[in-house]
Design a protein that fits this description.
Order of helices and strands: HHHHH
Number of helices: 5
Structural class: mainly alpha
Distance between the termini: 109 Å
Shape: elongated
Number of domains: 2
Number of strands: 0
Mean pLDDT: 81
Strand content: under 5%
Radius of gyration: 38 Å
Length: about 170
């Protein structure tokens, strides 16, 4: 038997494939919304990746054209703040007798004798961020008491600096 011509065989194959697909259509219709959503999400993710890659390439090219900032203009640090300027005409308090201040035993006795500030009894247990979170609720007098207590005990520069700045802010707001 002689084989049928190629176009006839192709047409028969197409007809059989169409019938098979028609039989599977009800099953495929149930999953069609999920498939469409999945493909749409994949397409959007691919698009986001391509946009990100283009932005990275653009950043690489542009970074060579302008010098990097050493320090952003919006970043401020405690060390950057200048100390208060004292003029020649400003009276300076005479230094107190510091003979007892050099004695470590006297300092220790003074530190042990002082009680924690009433405004913040847990002051000794607070870290710098924990203290910062509580400062907004305190009055200027309470802050002064904390500052005096800190200076008499640990005299940590970060704590005293933060307390001084908060006191100045509270007074400026009053």
């Amino acid at each position: 038997m002689k084989p049928l011509p190629l176009p006839v065989r192709i047409a028969a194959g197409l007809a059989v494939t169409a019938v098979e697909r028609a039989r599977l259509l009800p099953q495929q219709l149930a999953g069609l919304p999920v498939t469409v959503v999945s493909e749409a999400l994949q397409l959007s993710m691919r698009l986001q990746q391509q946009v990100t890659e283009l932005a990275i390439k653009g950043d690489d090219v542009l970074s060579g054209m302008r010098p990097p900032e050493d320090e952003p203009e919006w970043a401020t640090f405690d060390e950057d703040e200048s100390p208060p300027i004292v003029s020649v005409n400003t009276p300076v308090d005479p230094p107190e007798d510091t003979a007892d201040d050099d004695d470590p035993w006297t300092e220790e006795e003074r530190a042990i004798a002082a009680e924690p500030p009433a405004a913040l009894p847990v002051y000794d247990d607070l870290s710098l961020p924990q203290l910062r979170a509580r400062l907004r609720t305190l009055s200027a007098e309470d802050l002064e008491e904390l500052l005096a207590y800190e200076r008499a005990h640990d005299d940590r520069p970060q704590f005293t600096g933060m307390l001084n700045r908060r006191i100045a802010t509270v007074r400026a707001q009053s």
